[in-house]
Amino acid sequence: MARIMYDLCGEDTALRFSPFCWRAALAMRHKGLTLETRPWHFTDTQDIAFSGQGKVPVIVDEDDEVVTDSFDIMTWLDQKYPGPALFGDDMARSRARFIKHWSETTLAPALMKIAIVDVFSIIDPKDQSYFRESREARFGMTLEEFQDTEQGLEMLEKALPPLRAQLEGSSFIDGDHPAGADYLVFGMFMLAYVVHDGALLKSDDPVAQWHERMLDLFGGLARNAPRAASR
Amino acid sequence: MARIMYDLCGEDTALRFSPFCWRAALAMRHKGLTLETRPWHFTDTQDIAFSGQGKVPVIVDEDDEVVTDSFDIMTWLDQKYPGPALFGDDMARSRARFIKHWSETTLAPALMKIAIVDVFSIIDPKDQSYFRESREARFGMTLEEFQDTEQGLEMLEKALPPLRAQLEGSSFIDGDHPAGADYLVFGMFMLAYVVHDGALLKSDDPVAQWHERMLDLFGGLARNAPRAASR
């Protein structure tokens, strides 16, 4: 059997905008593994019920092993497959986990501010009421009240200094070559890349230059991702 | 010869408040190395001119090797001395560098807001004009205008989510045991511990609980540090 990843998609199933699925997809390629993606919508929970939970990414490996959660998938990849490490030893993995938390507590809220309505506008109509209700309950306001691109860009600017300082000193977060921490952080940016029409970073920003390098990996896997604005 | 570290001090030379010196001192103990500290004031630049620069920590090893900069000192310790790794391999070290940048771009500004006048009040009178002039030029305002404990505590609260999330999942930043990244971050908190009279964290905060564990390391090395408030 092929190795399969259930991958969040829009109404246009070519639009793949989940940061967590991007992390897993890039991590797979880092190990030199091929992957068939299966488009999945927020409300297709029955289709992944076999995984014992309701979120993607869900990986079904060639031997039918099922793995979920992007961080757990990367840990599992290091344990099961040879090739360059994603996380490395326990100490290195623990630091990657800090960087994961950093990306989820600082970048993700900024990107949500910038692009939540963009996400809403591209998801399948059958997902819209679930998406609106769950997010509006979380934010305590409507999606339209919540989205504020200018404020989101300010939040992003306040979040970026550690990443910028890091990338002033090395080509990738993980050093001379990209690895687990790069995919953890870059996955976040892929949400905006796919759904949002507008630059987040100035081209002379070391973060923007790293973003370009990440887009180019694996034959331009991320760069060639279909984008809402061009469809 | 003994191993020596030039260590920033107050007018009361027992007060050691440099985050960078704390990083190096704890890293030394992590390697099981002993250390003699030599109290140093901001304006004692002649005393460390032999190091080719003007900041502490400066280490003079038993074989007279001279090393500066807390991150470089930790890298050097891993290269020169056996014992538990501080940083580990290149990838792990690169992630530690991200965490260093995180601590310096988010925690340090918050701690400065909270404690800059406290620092000024304990340094040697001979350092005061250097300290005031250099910091006021950087801030574009007087130290007294800059210090705003309430605002600093808000900045700290905004900075802490990734650290808090990390410490909800493990006892230390680096996993089950403290290592390089823990010292990089904890050093920052030692500035406030030594100079500032007032709690920064609620006792049920995982960050506070980690702070307690860090204070206890190496026979309570940090906990037993003389504090301005109790002198």
UniProtKB/TrEMBL annotation, chains A, B:
User: Superkingdom of this entry's organism?
Assistant: Bacteria
Outline the extent of the GST N-terminal domain: 8-85
- Gene3D superfamilies in the record, alphabetically? 1.20.1050.10, Glutaredoxin (3.40.30.10)
Q: Which UniProt keywords apply?
A: Transferase
Give start and end of each GST C-terminal domain: 89-231
Q: Name one GO molecular function term.
A: transferase activity
Pfam families this protein is in?
A: GST_C_7 (PF22041), GST_N_3 (PF13417)
PANTHER family per the UniProt record, alphabetical: GLUTATHIONE S-TRANSFERASE 1, GLUTATHIONE S-TRANSFERASE-RELATED
Recorded protein name is: Glutathione S-transferase
